[in-house]
């Protein structure tokens, strides 16, 4: 489930400000502040944010684009042709490429062939 929400408390806002100071990115900082206080998971492919949150909030579940798409494609029983189309759109329109150490890189490469 994906939700679009705003900071809802002074505690979330304070954490957000602290995270912006560390990360320099308001989007990742807001996402992290909300998730930490509400005990939610986040989705990010930003390596710096991922490293920061693993250190700052080790219990925080962090999902990547590929984890979300792979799970969705399997649950929806997406055909290989449709999955290739989705991944191609993510690559071109989202300008996304998994980094060379991404745990699902081989899955991405296999699906893109």
Please give a structural write-up.
This protein has six helices and two strands; from the N terminus they run ααβαβααα. By secondary structure, the protein is mainly alpha-helical. The protein folds into two domains: 10-63, no CATH class; 65-112, no CATH class. It has a two-stranded parallel ribbon with strand order 1-2.
Properties at a glance:
113 residues; mainly alpha; 2 domains; two-stranded parallel ribbon; 6 helices; 62% helix; elongated
**What best-fitting shape do the alpha-carbon axes yield?**
elongated
Helix content: 55-70%
Overall domain count: 2
Secondary structure category:
mainly alpha
- The low-confidence runs, each spanning 5 or more residues with pLDDT under 50, are none
Strand line-up of the largest beta sheet:
1-2
Topology:
Elements (H helix, E strand, L loop, with lengths): L9 H14 L2 H13 L3 E2 L3 H10 L5 E2 L1 H11 L4 H14 L11 H8 L1
Parallel strand pairs: 1-2
Helix pairs in contact: 1-2
Task: Briefly say what this structure is.
By secondary structure, this protein is mainly alpha-helical.
């Amino acid at each position: 489930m994906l939700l679009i929400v705003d900071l809802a408390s002074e505690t979330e806002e304070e954490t957000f400000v602290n995270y912006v100071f560390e990360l320099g990115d308001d989007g990742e900082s807001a996402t992290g502040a909300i998730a930490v206080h509400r005990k939610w998971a986040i989705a990010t492919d930003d390596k710096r944010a991922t490293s920061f949150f693993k250190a700052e909030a080790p219990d925080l579940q962090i999902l990547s684009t590929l984890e979300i798409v792979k799970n969705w494609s399997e649950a929806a029983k997406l055909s290989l042709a449709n999955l290739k189309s989705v991944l191609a759109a993510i690559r071109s329109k989202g300008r996304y490429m998994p980094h060379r150490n991404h745990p699902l890189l081989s899955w991405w490469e296999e699906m893109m062939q």
